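Many introductory courses stop at the sequence. We go one step further.
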Amino acid sequence: MAWTKESSLGKIREVGLVPIVRAPSAEDAMLAAEAIIAGNIGIAEITMTVPNALHVMEKVADKYGDKVLLGAGTILDPETGRAAMLAGAQFIVTPALNIQVIELARRYSKPCMPGALTPTEIITAWQAGADLVKVFPCGPVGGPKYIKALKGPFPQIEFIPTGGVNLETTPEFIKAGAAAVAVGGELVDIKLLREGKQELIAATALKYVEAVRAARASMAK
């Protein structure tokens, strides 16, 4: 199955977790991506802060093809976003609001998850065509309470909080109205990777997915 914009967004909404691969080397990043994929999560975001990030994306895309929804994170400009798409990225994530990157993603029918924090940035991102809005850094400004406050005036916008997201707070974020959560360092433990304990990272990823499911189930009662 080739990923379309609709199926990509559907996958993110269904799983409720965007695992972020941010590692000090390309080798560590590849190990992390493999660990996440081994956990049957089916989504992996590789940040441009990884050395040779585009090469890592290419390797993941070549090895797993459409079995994984591959994203590119920390995209700061449209040129880098285009290069990431050519390397196999199916969705684009930015740490801050850049309307040109949103326009690029729209041009190529790829989901875009721009970073925004204030109400003004959030509505600007949505009006520019953002599919989902990454609220970053969410933890320092109130965490789940901040998401709940934002959903009041912006019920139509789907939020993905990052920063301050862990296994304890994930259910709270979902109950506050988050469409999904994005997790980096709390999930991808470099020490475990280098000890050859990839299976522990895969297991942790599944715990996050289960936390999302449990939170959604409790809301449906």
